[in-house]
Structure formats: C-alpha cells, structure tokens
Design goal:
It is a single chain. By secondary structure, the protein is an alpha/beta fold. The protein has one domain: Spore Coat Polysaccharide Biosynthesis Protein SpsA, Chain A. The protein has 10 helices and 8 strands. The protein has an 8-stranded mixed sheet with strand order 3-2-1-4-7-6-8-5, with helices on both faces. It is globular, with a radius of gyration of 17 Å. The N and C termini lie far apart (60 Å).
C-alpha cells in the first residue's frame, strides 16, 4: 500500500484592526482539517483593537511586522520554513468547506504552481452577482487572480519568484505575473466568501470601475506607488 504524501499548508492572514471578522475567518481555515497539516500565521501591521488578543485566545501564531499587506505577508512567509504551500487569506474572507483537499488535489498536477478560488460576495445585492461573474471572466480570459480569492502557491516557487514585493498596491497582481513564469496558475471551482465592505464603502459601480482603471494603468506601466497616491484620494 502506497502512502499518500502529506502536504503542509501555512495560511497567512494579514491584519490591521480586524477584530470583527477574524474569529470566523480562522474557524473556516480549521474546519474539516487538522492542525497537523494546516497552520495559521497572522501577520499584524499594528492593530490597535483586540485583534492580537483574539489570535492568542485561539492558539494561533501571530507576528508583528511593518504595515503594508505585501510586506506583512512576505515577512510571515520568510518565517515559515516547514510549509509546502502558502495560502494568503484576507481577514474578511472565509475558506470553503473542503478547501484543503481542493488545493492538495490541484497541486497533484506538477505543472500547477499556484492558484486561487472562485469568489462569492456576502451580499444580496444584484451588483454583487455581477461582480462575481466579472471576477470569473477576468480569471478565465486574463488568468488574473486577486488576493481576495485566497491565492495559494508552492512554497519553493514563491521563494524562487522573490515573494511579495514591498508595493503599496496591486502586490497580488504583481506576484501572480511573476509566478506564472514557473508554471500554471489555476482557479478552483470552490468559492471563498468575502465581505462586501470594500464595495459598500464607495459603491459597487464606482469601486469596480476604479479597480479596472487602476489595473489597466498598471499594465500600461504606471507604478504602484503612483497609483497608490491616486487610489486613496478617490
């Protein structure tokens, strides 16, 4: 009888004042999995609420880093030497049931180096359904996966690609562009469930148009640093 190889996945969650949603997110990671094969590292960028107390109460490892999502996630990955796979999860996003086995099965194909999940938005708004379809179309046509889709990547490939760069914006797109040089990037059928808060803040239409505009400007050669300045003025 052949033994099924163990795949150790480290889930890295960047946080900054995420006390409201973090418990449910962490619970979604451990649901149906074992801490023998899955662990979590919370990379905190200077929370002033109860985020770190919550992490400690749940028996999850936390590190404190410089602020900036890419920098936070990259620092956490540097400290995780035993992981076979990194999965980068936003604090307001829930992993689906059976996520571990879905990732493990996808990576049985040696040509697959990274991937992400489909996206569901936790809202009844018809605009949320339209955005979900747009995300699916973007992934299928352009091969683009955003951070809210829970990007996973083989740890050795992540390191060879140089990890996350210290970018103030679009660090996820930048990573995927570099990762694709090493092999295939796939989108799983299972979907994560993400909070609608970033769309609700400025409205679904405005936020979506702005995001597409900034993506186009990025591909046209505008630096993430310059885009960041404009992003937070709008």
């Amino acid at each position: 009888m052949s033994l099924v190889p163990v795949v150790r996945i480290t889930v890295i969650i960047p946080t900054l004042n995420e006390e409201r949603c973090l418990v449910e997110t962490i619970e979604s990671v451990f649901a149906g999995t074992s801490r023998d094969v899955v662990d979590i590292v919370v990379a905190d960028g200077g929370s002033r609420d109860r985020t770190l107390k919550i992490v400690k109460s749940l028996g999850v490892r936390a590190i404190q880093t410089e602020q900036g999502r890419g920098a936070q996630m990259d620092r956490a990955a540097e400290l995780c030497g035993k992981a076979d796979v990194f999965l980068f999860l936003h604090a307001d996003t829930l992993l689906p049931e059976g996520w571990y086995y879905a990732v493990k099965d996808a990576l049985k194909d040696g040509s697959v180096v990274a991937g992400g999940f489909g996206l569901s938005i936790n809202s009844r708004s018809p605009w949320a359904r339209i955005i979900e379809k747009g995300v699916a179309l973007r992934a299928s046509l352009l091969g683009l996966i955003y951070g809210d889709q829970a990007i996973f990547v083989r740890a050795d490939i992540f390191r060879r690609a140089g990890g996350f760069r210290r970018l103030p914006l679009l660090e996820d797109v930048d990573l995927i562009r570099r990762i694709r040089r090493f092999g295939r990037v796939v989108v799983l059928e299972k979907r994560v469930l993400t909070s609608p808060r970033r769309w609700q803040k400025r409205g679904y239409v405005f936020t979506t148009i702005r995001n597409w505009l900034y993506l186009l400007l990025y591909y046209a050669g505008v630096s993430p640093q310059r885009l960041y300045k404009g992003y937070y003025k709008t």
